[in-house]
Amino acid sequence: GREISAGGGDESGGRMGFHLLLPLRWSRLSMSTWASGKMLGVPTVPLANGLEIPVLGLGTSHYGGYSHDAVVYAIQQCGIRHIDTAKRYGCESLLQKAIKDSGVKREDLWITTKLWLSDYGYENAKRACVESCQRLGVEYLDLYLVHWPDAHIPGKSSRDVRAETWQAMEELYDKGLCRSIGVSNFLIDHLEQLKEDCRITPHVNQVEYHPFQRPQELVDYCRSKDIVFEGYCPLAKGEALSHPNVVHLAKKYGRTPAQICIRWSIQNGVVTIPKSTKPERIKENCQVFDFRLEKEDMECLDSMNINRKVIHLTHPLWKG
């Protein structure tokens, strides 16, 4: 795909006019859907192995975070091709039907799922991947993530378990069952250890990312290692939507607060996966590629960072 501006047509800030530079491309699929006028085109970001991941996806979760109709709507009407799920969410089997009902070819979708703690270890991880594929009704995954850095296996250090698990991920990648492999919620220490212990650098690190939680040191580290940074909870579970800075910018640009937050995340070069079960919200979340936040407004949103997470972890990110 060819490189383009991520919105607004202003490339004065460098390639793509991004606040943080990131090579962003329109995939062939996205260009055709954009031209049709029926669906939005979603640009893609290149991974270290040359694959292109859509910069915007649809997140799913447990606790009521799944809707069959919403997933089908996102794919059919909004041009979404990137679906993010996890074994832990319990909706992989439900997604199989939504993917089938969408009518979109498997090769035109980007499907991410995650390995849960109970499946860590070499043999367990390989088996869990096959089982996730079976539940999803697919022959391969586009991206498979290790969900948490900590294993909590008695008698074994988390580092040893991570290394053993990652060796299984590497084998799954080598065999083509996973087109790319990555991690989630990993800190710099975890990534450094993985680099020492294993062969393949993760293609992606998926971490909580929103105006209240902008771990720039981790973002910079990932970029320096050619690891694509992916952000979940871009709206801070809705808490960012009422912040005066966000409300002010929504009025300034004639957009919704959610669109301001998602645009900020994408314009910071972060692959972004908002969650919603409401079609009107999904449509709104996708309409973020036809405008661009000015430099001072990006800085205004950047300044909201107070290192506050909205995901209260059952499994804390220890550094063991």
UniProtKB/TrEMBL annotation:
PROSITE patterns xrefs: ALDOKETO_REDUCTASE_2, ALDOKETO_REDUCTASE_3
Superkingdom of source: Eukaryota
GO molecular function, one term: oxidoreductase activity
Pfam families: Aldo_ket_red
InterPro entries recorded: AKR (IPR020471), Aldo/ket_reductase_CS (IPR018170), NAD(P)_OxRdtase_dom_sf (IPR036812), NADP_OxRdtase_dom (IPR023210)
NADP-dependent oxidoreductase domain ranges (all copies): 56-305
Keywords: Oxidoreductase
UniProt-annotated catalytic positions: 89
Residues the entry annotates as binding substrate: 147
Site feature (Lowers pKa of active site Tyr) residues: 114
Family membership: Belongs to the aldo/keto reductase family.
Protein name according to UniProt: NADP-dependent oxidoreductase domain-containing protein
